[in-house]
Amino acid sequence: MNHNLFATFAERMRERGDAPFVTTRDGHGYSYRQALETTARLAGALHELGVRPGDRVAVQVDKSPETLLLYLACLRLGGVYLPLNTGYTAAEIRYFLNDAEPALFVCRPDDLDSARRVAEETGCPQVASLGTAVDGSLIEHMQRAAPVEAIEPRDDNDLAAILYTSGTTGRSKGAMLTHRNLASNAASLVEAWRFTEADRLIHALPIFHTHGLFVACNVCLMAGASLLFLPRLDIDAIIDELPRGTTLMGVPTFYTRLLQDERLTRELTANMRLFTSGSAPLTAETHREFAQRTGHAILERYGMTETNMNTSNPYDGERIAGTVGRPLPGVEIRITQREGHAPVPDGEIGILEVRGPNVFAGYWRMPEKTRGELLDDGFFITGDLARIDEHGYVQIVGRDKDLVISGGYNVYPKEVEQIIDELDAVVESAVIGVPHPDFGEGVTAVVVRRPGATLEEAQVIESLAGRLAKYKQPKRVFFVDELPRNTMGKVQKNQLRERYEAIYTTS
Ligand code: MLC
Ligand code: AMP
């Protein structure tokens, strides 16, 4: 049997024939039949560009139906899909290409020159481009290449994708996801969230992360549902589409922004059957307000790049605000002490560990980091602090890792601190996340200047431009004489978070 995830998708695609698969608001799109054919043609283009089974295909392009088909074509050919945040700078891309050694880098048409330079520096043999107007050199290749009709045989444990996540040391790690990881999780979610062919998902997330790509697109593909692709979060477009949609998946910012719009009502959402939230904590207040306004209880679930989705509030049954529900079928959760991994007593807070077919195969070419986080018994240490309540629902109460989540994007403070600390005028810095009304947490830097130096907030932010994606850059920078430390010399970020707690919420 071919365990290539694409083989499962292809079966559904054949069955669904002329039913719509993915469309944009201007009517451009593909039926399932057209999508299946186009993946064969795009696989032909990839093959012509030298991609072979097991090769990585790095992709930094804007969201479009063709981007999704490129992902599918890569699976079809047995390649390893490596999507990259469209906000990454050339400096960040250089690291990923060096580390992953892809056979091909697909970029936006406008980035072609810089992409070629980075590819040359990193030894990446091929560069192609893909635009949002069905344009770019990849499309030209597709037009002349012979289609690849076969679906490359893959084993359950062969890699389907590598997604980079930053780490506490500031060095990004490539999470290796297998065909089994993705297939098992998509099947669980279709079941848990009752996805069917009748669904039309309003898709406004980026498609270079687990949430927008695997949770949203894989689930729709498995169920034979259709996707309405919006290029980004656009509240007017969502409001316009809600009467024709059945489901929406979002990060909490989606819901706080929707709630600010008075057009959001029970009537407007009457055709919708499900709103899900994840990637960052949804406040109980947002959950309650949304239910009051629309009659829909947002279904909150919890996941990670390394594990796909782990827990979910129920479709039928009570969706409890401030919790992420119970483990999905086949997923095991335990709450442990940091040292020794012994389980904590029932109801107490500890580190959440997870095991199951959803858990990744390790970090790309980082066996030590993998050993540090993926235990011999198969449990993965998420670094999230959690407890299990009296209903058996998981509550995420905090993080044991130094991580900020801004609008659903992870920012590892170390990566930002390292660059700020390179400035001549800086002695040291601490980057923290504090409550932000729109992004949940706002990235904030606290900096110690050298005596006599005249560094200002704007200069610090400017120094990061071109080196770090915009979402990682601090929204505010504060200067202090020294950073608070404990007796071990460790910076007390809790104290800093308390001190700057109200900077975004009271202005
Ligand atoms: C954009 N900006 C951000 C930001 N997004 N800053 C901080 N955090 C973010 N998330 C910057 C922009 O560059 C801009 O800067 C300014 O903030 C305002 O931008 P905007 O127009 O408001 O941004 P918008 O396009 O509306 O995007 C906001 C967003 C988006 C929240 C909708 O960031 C988003 O789609 N986030 C989803 C992330 C996601 O998919 N995560 C899933 C990870 S998978 P300026 O200065 O130019 O104005 C995962 C596993 C799991 O975590 O469990 O799901
Ligand atoms: P990422 O590495 O981008 O996949 O982010 C994963 C992290 O997002 C998790 O380890 C959690 O800290 C956080 N996360 C995801 N979903 C939720 C949720 N529903 N509530 C709280 N935190 C979440």
Could you outline the blueprint of secondary structure elements for this entry?
Elements: H1 5-16, E1 20-24, E2 29-31, H2 32-48, E3 56-60, H3 65-76, E4 80-83, H4 90-100, E5 104-107, H5 112-122, E6 126-129, H6 137-144, E7 159-165, E8 173-178, H7 179-192, E9 200-203, H8 210-223, E10 226-229, H9 235-241, E11 247-250, H10 252-259, E12 274-277, H11 284-294, E13 299-304, E14 308-312, E15 326-327, E16 332-336, E17 350-355, H12 367-373, E18 380-388, E19 394-399, E20 404-406, E21 409-411, H13 413-421, E22 426-436, E23 440-449, H14 457-464, E24 476-480, H15 493-499
Parallel strand pairs: 1-10, 3-4, 3-5, 5-6, 9-10, 9-11, 11-12, 12-13, 23-24
Antiparallel strand pairs: 1-2, 7-8, 13-14, 14-15, 16-17, 17-18, 18-19, 20-21, 22-23
Helix pairs in contact: 1-2, 1-8, 2-3, 2-6, 4-5, 7-8, 10-11
Bound molecules: malonyl-coenzyme A (MLC) and adenosine monophosphate (AMP).
Adenosine monophosphate binds at residues 165, 210, 278-281, 300, 302-305, 324, 382, 384, 396, 399, 405, 410.
The CATH architecture designation of the largest domain is 3-Layer(aba) Sandwich
Q: How would you name the CATH homologous superfamily of the largest domain?
A: ANL, N-terminal domain
Low-confidence stretches: none
**Secondary-structure-derived class:** alpha/beta
Q: Give the CA-CA distance, first to last residue.
A: 60 Å
State the helicity in percent bands: 25-40%
Bound molecules: malonyl-coenzyme A, adenosine monophosphate
> Largest sheet, if any?
9 strands, mixed
The top level CATH class name of the largest domain: Alpha Beta
Query: What is the CATH fold-level name of the largest domain?
Result: Rossmann fold
